[in-house]
Specification:
By secondary structure, the protein is α/β, with parallel strands linked by helices. It is built from 5 helices and 5 strands; from the N terminus they run E-H-E-H-E-H-E-H-E-H. Strand 3, helix 3 and strand 4 form a beta-alpha-beta unit.
Length: about 120
Amino acid sequence: MTNCLLASQLPMFRPMIKGVLERLGFKVVVAVNGKDALAEYIQQIPDVVLITDGLPPFGAEQTVRAMRDAEGGNAPKIIVVVRLDELGRIPALRAAGANDSGAAPSPDSIEQIFRRNGLLKS
């Protein structure tokens, strides 16, 4: 089973996103802020990281950059999902080290992004 770190400060979306990822065959570990996400990441580098926008106290860009700077940080795919009104931040997220970005954490958008990145078997 592929390990996924879900880093999301959005309590209303976490259960939905976690359920989608589990349905897609991922073992999911959840972090609720950037500090916890980085600690989980360093403890056991996952196969893929899905970040929903925000992540205090660091923010998504700084969290991605810190993950990439960690030992083994180039290994996993890091995907960041932003709100529709923040699509202009995608270039900064890519510059920080995100492999891909998308808009609005919906089941369909998550599946499309994971499929586009070769993370789904079928």
